[in-house]
From TrEMBL:
Name of the protein: BTB domain-containing protein
InterPro entries in UniProt: BTB/POZ_dom, SKP1/BTB/POZ_sf
CDD domains to which the protein is assigned, alphabetical: BACK_RHOBTB3
The organism's taxonomic lineage, starting at the top: Eukaryota, Metazoa, Chordata, Craniata, Vertebrata
Pfam families per the UniProt record, alphabetical: BTB
Boundaries of every BTB domain copy: 33-94
SUPFAM superfamilies reported for this sequence: POZ domain
C-alpha cells in the first residue's frame, strides 16, 4: 500500500508533458532536442533518435564519419523552411497534409533528397488526386504549369507521377495544347502526347463529318 501511495504521489508531481506518448508533441520544440537545423536564417530543433529511426539518409549522416555526426548545428540547403518543416512533421507523425499542389511537389523533391520513398508516394497521390478533381474550365484557366510539374517529376525520379502526368496531358489535349508551356515538351514527350491524344484526329474528323451531315439534313427543303 505504501508503494502504491508513493507511486501515485510521484505521478501527481510529474510534469504533464511526460504523459504525452505522441511524437507530435516533440515536433519543432527544443524540449530534449539534441540537433538544430539552420535553414533560411532560422533554426529548427529536432531529435536525432527520431530522425535516425525514420530516415536512412539522416541515419547515415548522424552515425557515419560526417561533420553532422558531431555537430549540434546542421545547415540545410536546397529547400525552403516551410517545406523542411513539413518533411520533419512527416517523420514525427507519419502524416502529410500539403496545402497545395506546388507545396506537395516541393515536399516530394525534399523526400527524394532524403530518400523517404513513402512520403514521395503520398505526395504523388496528392498531386494526382488534386489534378483529377479539377474541372476542365479550371484546368484551362489555371496558372499552374502541368508541363512544369512533369519536368520536375522526371528530374527527381518520380516515375509514377511523370507517367501519369504525360497521360493526363494527352487525355486533355485540347486544353494543354493551347498553353504556351506545351512547347516545352521534348520531342519524345510530344510524340507520345500526339499518339495518345484525346480527342484524336480521327475522332475530330468523324465528328466534323457528322455535324456537316446533320446540318445538311436540316437545311434540305422537303416538299410534302
Amino acid at each position: 500500500m505504501n508503494c502504491l501511495k508513493n507511486c501515485r504521489s510521484y505521478q501527481t508531481k510529474r510534469p504533464l508533458w511526460l504523459y504525452n506518448t505522441s511524437l507530435r508533441f516533440f515536433f519543432n520544440t527544443p524540449m530534449l532536442a539534441d540537433v538544430i537545423f539552420k535553414i533560411q536564417g532560422s533554426t529548427v530543433p529536432a531529435h536525432r533518435a527520431v530522425l535516425v529511426a525514420r530516415c536512412k539518409v539522416m541515419a547515415a549522416m548522424f552515425n557515419g564519419n560526417y561533420l553532422e555526426a558531431s555537430s549540434v548545428l546542421v545547415p540545410v540547403y536546397g529547400v525552403s523552411k516551410e517545406t523542411f518543416l513539413s518533411f520533419l512533421e512527416y517523420l514525427y507523425t507519419d502524416s502529410c497534409c500539403p496545402a497545395s499542389i506546388l507545396q506537395a511537389m516541393s515536399l516530394l523533391i525534399c523526400a527524394e533528397m532524403y530518400q523517404v520513398s513513402r512520403l514521395q508516394h503520398i505526395c504523388e497521390l496528392y498531386i494526382i488526386t488534386q489534378l483529377q478533381s479539377m474541372p476542365s474550365r479550371e484546368l484551362a484557366t489555371t496558372s499552374l504549369s502541368v508541363v512544369g510539374l512533369l519536368k520536375k517529376a522526371k528530374f527527381h525520379n518520380s516515375d509514377c507521377l511523370s507517367t501519369w502526368l504525360l497521360h493526363f496531358i494527352a487525355t486533355n489535349y485540347l486544353i494543354f495544347s493551347q498553353k504556351p508551356d506545351f512547347q516545352d515538351l521534348s520531342a519524345e514527350e510530344r510524340s507520345f502526347v500526339e499518339m495518345h491524344r484525346w480527342p484524336s484526329n480521327i475522332y475530330l474528323k468523324q465528328l466534323a463529318e457528322y455535324r456537316k451531315y446533320v446540318h445538311s439534313r436540316k437545311c434540305r427543303c422537303i416538299v410534302m
